[in-house]
Amino acid sequence: QIEEWRKLRDQATVSADGVHVELAANIGTPNDVPGVIDNGGEAVGLYRTEFLYMGRDKLPTEEIQFNAYKTVLEKMEGKPVVVRTLDIGGDKELPYLDLPKEMNPFLGFRAVRLCLDRTDIFRTQLRALLRASVYGNLRIMFPMIATLDEFRQAKALLLEEKDKLAAEGIEVSDEIQLGIMVEIPSTAIIADQFAKEVDFFSIGTNDLIQYTMAADRMNERVSYLYQPYNPAILRLVKMVIDAAHKEGKWAGMCGEMAGDATAIPLLLGLGLDEFSMSATSILPARSQISKLSKADMAELAAKALTMQTAAQVVELVKSIDA
Ligand code: PEP
Ligand code: MG
């Protein structure tokens, strides 16, 4: 099996009936990039930039950020790199920001909500990203978008910084795709409207599941409700993918579900274009997909959407390799 995976390392990801999908990796720092390449990653699908902000006693400067982004882009040699702007708050704290304690941190002041308020922090990050954009294939993604207004505001700030750089004579790529994480149900539900304005979606199932099921992803006592295969989740995922495709955009997934062997047949069948996962899951996933017919998986997924429980969906998926 290890032999087979090694052979797959330098190959594209193609289903048994000849459909290409992209297998990307989630990373936290530039040091993770060699692992992406070793494991045959076709892209970075999620660069969680919050680690740049954590483990220090003040905000990272524009220069520190620029160097990190440039390193990742260069090491990926022109392959796509989706950088997620700061997603702090929730379970991830930054002591030096001195934010008040909240009753429900996961429902509180985090990610793009904080960035749209502390625009000084956000603008510095956007500037660093824009400057780094000429060193590779940069895609920028905003986390925790709940409304179209938030997306428009964040995009406006990005365009302002781009204009400022242009005025300073600093070169910025004109090919930067701009997308959002779909991890809040409100956004999945009006994905058709978002799809007209974004370049891509990346479905963040880690949060999408917790918000849809109202089950804290860190709370053991309600973990039985944390159900990736619940038909409610699958229907939301389908809505997002269909909405993207209707506007000629691509849809990826960067939550844990994207690398899950039970979910992969369903996601392939629902038409997911990009699967972003931990680097070590890429070759097993590529091997699995090479043995699945996308047309057959579309039938399987259609059936799954009519199931009543997550357990029934799991049983249905297991039946394909029986
Ligand atoms: C997600 O919510 O699915 C996601 C990828 O983001 P994070 O796990 O960093 O919240
Ligand atoms: Mg998330």
TrEMBL record:
Its EC number is 2.7.3.9. This is Phosphoenolpyruvate-protein phosphotransferase. The lineage of its organism: Bacteria, Bacillati, Bacillota, Bacilli, Bacillales. Its main location: cytoplasm. GO terms for cellular component: cytoplasm. One of its GO terms (biological process) is phosphoenolpyruvate-dependent sugar phosphotransferase system. Mg(2+) binds at residues 183, 207. GO terms for molecular function: kinase activity; metal ion binding; phosphoenolpyruvate-protein phosphotransferase activity.
